[in-house]
Design brief:
Largest sheet: 7 strands, mixed
Radius of gyration: 34 Å
CATH superfamily of the largest domain: FAD/NAD(P)-binding domain
Family: Belongs to the paxM FAD-dependent monooxygenase family.
Protein name: FAD-binding domain-containing protein
Number of domains: 2
Mean pLDDT: 92
Strand content: 5-15%
Structural class: alpha+beta
Keywords: FAD, Flavoprotein, Membrane, Oxidoreductase, Transmembrane, Transmembrane helix
Low-confidence stretches: none
Shape: elongated
Subcellular location: Membrane
Organism: Penicillium argentinense
């Protein structure tokens, strides 16, 4: 590979995971480097294992190390088990391996730490640039170079120095001392003793231990101590005994433990149960190596100064429980490489000034700091739970954790793995996954802006306004009194139409249906063409909304949310007006999708998708067509109107029935249940069909009004004085429907704008809210609000659809 780094040379202090990862990344980018390792050999056996997670494996895959890591680990984690102090299982994730690879491509594997270091070392071609027995003792920042002196008395120079020399970093100490001389405010002086450690751990490797199933990761909960026991390759078993030291110790207070202290602690826990048939003593007696150490956990405030930067444990130290320490060391090395390569690509001379080096370091820390802080915090919280540190945590561990659904864990994986860094300049081998990594999206997912709070307020205001314009206005303008009179007299006065007294034989339901028929009958039979035309337009515009309500009600990720039952919402808006209820539904829908990762999470499928369109046809479209069919028999027409009233509810019911029939039929015939992977094609058809119907009605009505001298768009859609007295029931009903339609249209506009913004902030679209406002306005005008909602949901479904993601950097 031809050199890309020009005269840039990177000195790396530390030849462990962080340092060798960085060296391999630099080598693959043609950038000169030199690794200074303090110990006399690379990859010594120090008794430690390491878990390599999807965020680390993805980068290792780019570096060509993935297959070697998988081969060395032998057994990816297939099952996660939580056990109590008796070793009894109380929670397990039996298909953990299948789920994590399906979502994030890569498994979780455990191997000796030295094995991973050896793999990194073996993949570095320029091994002469890795020097052992070279412990850094002093660092000097010159205007044009960094100078390093080692314990052996040798001096090395480079463009800058990266300290990858662990939690007790000599490079970090030297960086602090240099900063103190030049700019005392750069480093917080309190940080020297700020490093906290609450827990200590014996971690070890044992051989020939039976009782731990291969491919299993076991956590054992106890009060103030816990175990983590992953199976390893061959006959190896890895284990961690973590104990609370009694209080958080800081800086110089943190102890260094002797071998005698280790053995003493081991004896205290000799009879602890790992499983019902395996004691800790079996692990310890069969160990081939072990180490007893305190577990500091901290993210430093400053990772760099002038020509020196720290990465890995020297910058951010993790609790080992979640396995993120080594993986985030690889991530930070990748972030530093990305910014270094970008700076070199932008430099015509392929040299870097002091200001450019500082910018590289600053960008690296800015990119990585928040993520490492959140993961360190999450790791600490997980350790506290498994040690049941408080009565509340003990209660949670004993009575809540056993019932935690697997989906809660898999949803957390999105933040843990999908937000990970990768190498921008190297291709990622194509591997399918159902959830994208954030760097494969158009932008990093973000939270909603403050505008969403305004939308909540506007939706609440619209619902209140709807109550005023629909019900208060109906009472004041005399519409409801005329409806009551018609129901009491069983006759609509101005038309002389007699109302049917009974529809179902059940008095309370018949009373409701009779009232609704009294409202709809004048609109359907009015001699004024604008009245039935407005209702036709209104009901056709609602068709896509009802389709969307039904789809979202049956979408798997919306289970147990407020929008999970389209039947209940259908009942509410049929009784109280969709202009009043839809804003409330939209607000709940916004709340359900509030997380930045909501559109990226699993559960996008709609298992009943293939039955929703038939249900819409039978439950809504046919009854709506019959509503305007010119029946000569008044009682038949009233029966049709009464039958139409539960139409939105029937759509959901028919969907449920159709899906149930198919499932029962397949079960009886022994066929496998059809997969929901193909639901996207059925959803496309739903949005296309309902959108085309709504658009055709919109275009027909608008065209008719424009070319007809008797019809007016203003009279059709804009109510006259809503609170002024009406002479006829039909006039009051027209005002009611006009207000109902206008309010749901405005609410739909706001809701659609939020969904456009959600697609943008999730990194799935480049259409921002400003463009969205223009697009929605044009859509509402030219194809109508119903068709616009259908088109938006079609595009939304395409964006979040059931596709397999793969990298676009190939």
């Amino acid at each position: 590979m031809s050199p890309k780094g020009g005269n840039v040379k990177v000195l790396i202090a530390g030849g462990s995971i962080a340092g060798l990862s960085l060296a391999l990344m630099l080598e693959q980018n043609g950038i000169d480097f030199l690794v200074l390792e303090a110990y006399p050999s690379i990859a010594p056996q120090v008794g430690a294992s390491i878990g390599v997670l999807p965020n680390g494996l993805r980068i290792l895959n780019q570096l060509g190390c993935y297959e070697d890591v998988i081969a060395a680990a032998e057994y990816p984690v297939e099952k996660v088990v939580f056990r109590d102090s008796r070793g009894e299982r109380f929670w397990s994730f039996d298909n953990f391996g299948e789920q994590i690879t399906e979502r994030h491509t890569y498994p979780v594997v455990f191997l000796d730490r030295r094995m991973l270091i050896q793999i990194l070392y073996d993949n570095i071609q320029q091994k002469d640039k890795i020097l052992t027995s070279e412990r850094v003792v002093s660092v000097t920042n010159n205007p044009d170079e960094a100078i390093v002196t080692t314990k052996s008395g040798k001096t090395y120079t480079g463009t800058f120095l990266v300290g990858a020399d662990g939690i007790h970093s000599a490079v970090r100490q030297q960086m602090w001392e240099n900063a103190q001389k030049v700019d005392p405010t750069w480093i917080d002086a309190s940080e020297e003793d700020a490093l906290p450690a609450t827990y200590a751990c014996i971690f070890g490797i044992s051989r020939g231990v039976s009782g731990i199933e291969k491919g299993t990761l076991t956590s054992v909960f106890n009060e103030h101590f816990s175990y983590l026991v992953p199976s390893g390759p061959g006959d190896r078993t890895y284990w961690f005994l973590v104990r609370n030291m009694g209080k958080a110790l800081h800086g110089s207070e943190i102890p260094r433990f002797t071998k005698d202290e280790e053995e003493s602690l081991a004896r205290e826990h000799w009879d602890d149960c790992i499983t019902p048939n395996l004691r800790f003593s079996e692990l310890y007696k069969n160990k081939i190596s072990s180490v007893y150490t305190a577990l500091p956990e901290y993210v430093y405030k400053r990772w760099y100064f002038q020509r020196v930067m720290t990465i890995g444990d020297a910058a951010h130290k993790f609790e080992p429980l979640t396995g993120q320490g080594g993986n985030n060391a690889i991530e930070t090395a990748a972030a530093l490489t990305n910014h270094l390569v970008a700076a070199l690509d932008a430099s015509s001379s392929k040299e870097l000034s002091a200001a450019e080096i500082t910018s590289i370091f600053e960008k690296t820390q800015h990119q990585r700091e928040d993520r490492t802080r959140s993961l360190v915090k999450a790791s600490h919280a997980r350790q506290r739970l498994e040690c049941m540190e408080t009565p509340l945590l003990k209660f949670i561990a004993n009575f809540i954790v056993p019932y935690v659904p697997k989906s809660m864990l898999t949803d957390r994986w999105v933040d843990t793995y999908s937000a990970a860094v990768s190498l921008n300049m190297l291709p990622i081998p194509v591997k399918k996954r159902t959830i994208p990594y954030y760097d494969e999206l158009l932008r990093f997912p973000s939270s909603r802006s403050r505008f969403s709070s305004i939308v909540y307020i506007l939706l609440a205001a619209l619902s209140f306004l709807a109550y005023q314009l629909l019900f208060e206005a109906g009472r004041e303008n005399g519409t409801f009194s005329q409806v009551r009179e018609a129901v009491i007299n069983s006759s609509i006065g101005e038309s002389g139409l007699n109302l049917k007294p009974s529809y179902t034989g059940f008095l309370p339901i018949d009373r409701i249906l009779k009232t609704l028929v009294a409202i709809f009958l004048p609109a359907v039979t009015s001699s004024n063409p604008e009245q039935p035309l407005q209702l036709i337009y209104f009901l056709s515009s609602m068709l896509p909304l009802i389709a969307v309500f039904t789809v979202e009600g049956y979408r798997r990720k919306n289970r147990w949310t407020a929008i999970a039952s389209p039947s209940i919402w259908g009942i509410l808006y049929q009784l109280r007006g969709i202009g009043c209820i839809a804003p409330i539904y939209f607000a709940f829908s916004m709340f359900t999708s509030r997380k930045s990762t909501f559109l990226l999470l699993p559960g996008r499928e709609v298992s009943a998708a293939r039955f929703i369109l038939p249900a819409l046809i039978v439950g809504y479209i046919v009854p709506t067509v019959l509503l305007f069919f010119p029946f000569n028999n008044p009682e038949t027409r009233q029966g049709i109107i009464a039958f139409w009233q539960p139409a939105p509810v029937l759509v959901s019911c028919f969907t449920y029935v159709f899906a149930g029939i198919e499932e029962a039929t397949k079960k009886a015939s022994g066929c496998k249940k059809s997969t929901s992977e193909n639901s996207i094609s059925h959803l496309r058809t739903i949005y296309q069909t309902t959108g085309v119907i709504a658009a055709c009605v919109h275009l027909s009505v608008v065209t008719g009004c424009l070319i007809s001298g008797d019809l007016s768009l203003t009279r059709l859609f804009i109510p006259r004085d809503s609170f002024g007295q009406v002479g006829r029931l039909v006039d009051g009903v027209l005002i009611f429907f006009q207000n109902d339609f206008l309010l749901v249209t405005v609410a739909s506009f706001l809701w659609s704008l939020v969904n456009i913004s959600d697609l943008y902030r999730s990194g799935l679209s480049n259409v921002n809210w400003r463009t969205g406002v223009c697009a929605l306005f044009a859509g509402f005008v030219f194809i109508g609000p119903g068709a616009t909602v259908a088109a938006l949901w079609f595009l939304r479904e395409e964006a979040i659809g059931l596709r397999h993601w793969h990298s676009n950097r190939q």
